[in-house]
Amino acid sequence: MAKSLILIGYMGCGKTVLGKCLAKRKSLDFIDLDEFIETEENTSISKIFEKVGELGFRKKERFYMEKLLSQNLRAIISLGGGTPCYFDNVNYVIKKDRFQSVYLKTSPKILASRLFEERNHRPIISHLDTPEDLEEFISKHLFERVPFYIMAKYHISTNDRSIEDLVDQLEKLLT
């Protein structure tokens, strides 16, 4: 049995929703890396971006990811959408024996529909004013990020599937 699952994928793909549901079902901890960073830094991700820029944030993100994954955890862990794409983060994750990495694959159209209303809370998309602009941005971003995401051990398409169905599929990876 895997001790932990690490969920990766673009923002809005369902890492948090699915991770929390699975953690509750299996009586495991759910840890969102962004929330972990905010707790450790005692500030928001947006404020960290403002203060140190994206590269500064990515350095902090790597530090806290290593800190988190060096613990003997049995948990469901959600990484930020960009986490696997910087430094050698994805290689670091997939080489951890106690963790199973899972890429939650979602189409740009579905991601845009999920993210449009909450874009003001997400620093990298807050400047986009129309659903069409957001979908185009996501498509381009995914083109850059998918080579990192697909390095995960497992891939699950979330398009047009219920939360229950997806949690069932993720649960099978723990048994």
Question: Could you report the average pLDDT, rounded to the nearest whole number?
Answer: 94
| Largest sheet, strands/sense/barrel | 5 strands, parallel
Structural class category = alpha/beta
The largest beta-sheet arranges its strands as 2-3-1-4-5
Instruction: Kindly give the count of domains.
Output: 1
Number of helices: 7
Number of separate strands: 5
By CATH, the architecture is named: 3-Layer(aba) Sandwich
Shape: globular
List unreliable stretches of 5+ residues: none
User: Which percent bin holds the helix content?
Assistant: 40-55%
How many whole angstroms does the radius of gyration measure?
A: 15 Å
Distance between the termini: 5 Å
- N-to-C series of helices and strands: EHEHHEHEHHEH
Tell me the name of the CATH homologous superfamily: P-loop containing nucleotide triphosphate hydrolases
- Output the CATH topology: Rossmann fold
List keywords for this structure.
175 residues; Rossmann fold; five-stranded parallel beta sheet; 5 strands
Quick synopsis:
The protein has 175 residues and is α/β, with parallel strands linked by helices.
Question: How would you describe this structure to a colleague?
Answer:
The structure is a single chain. With 175 residues, this protein is α/β, with parallel strands linked by helices. The protein has a single domain, classed as P-loop containing nucleotide triphosphate hydrolases (Rossmann fold). The chain contains seven helices and five strands, in the order E-H-E-H-H-E-H-E-H-H-E-H. The N and C termini lie close together (5 Å).
